[in-house]
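During the no-cost extension, the postdoctoral fellow (Dr. R.K.) reprocessed legacy sequence entries with the updated structure-token encoder. One reprocessed record is reproduced below for audit purposes.
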Amino acid sequence: MADDGAMKMFVYSFVGLGVGVYLFFKGFTWLREKRLIENTPTSKIRSLAMGRVEIFGKVVAEAKKKIKSPFSGADCVYCKWTIEEYRNQGKSSRWVVVKEGVETNHFNLQDNTGKVLVDPKDSQLDIPVDFESKKLTEPIKKYLDGEAIKYKSWLGFNKSLRFREYYLAPGDEVYIMGSAGDNPFVEDGSAQNNVDDIMIQKGKSDFYYISDKPETAVLKKFKWKVLGGFLGGGALIVVCLFYIFFFIGIL
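Re-encoded structure tokens follow.
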């Protein structure tokens, strides 16, 4: 009869096999997206045509359309935030997300030829952490109280919490791969020029990507994701299958 350690490894091998299969087939999706980026030329905003487009420019936002991020109070047009709690779980400890949210608004992207409206809804946003704090500052306490989020334990001590914000701010340089479609805020035939009646959005394609990195950096990231999917996923499949077959006596 197998000991407990061997049985755990057998179970973990099935989990690892599932992860490996997922990564391997996800590699095909990442490869397709990488090729879309490579094969789509970057367009100047003034010459945009309807359909799939790739653009690069700076975020511009009207004062009334700016959002205040909840923890740092930064002006932005998109903000994803998370509240995590550090918890002890058995022999391990880790940060666990206890609350998260997204707030967004339309914004304009501008290059040296013009500007176009962007709706970031339903996009894949590739942006780093812009703000992180483990301190319960007064603005953070005020926000938590307003949202009825408890930050004290039942003993009255402050919980070990971490607050993060990921946001797009006015002036940020942004790369977008999306669909140029109709601008619903402009009446047909009333636009002074073609681009006024265009809004970048998620079209029929399932790939809508926004990043605060230039195209070269985006492609480099996708290259590593593809390699990780095919090589990492493939290696995990082989190792896990080997152990499973060894455990059941086939090898």
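The helical segments are 4-39, 138-146, 215-247. The longest helix spans residues 4-39. The remaining legacy entries will be reprocessed before the final report is submitted.
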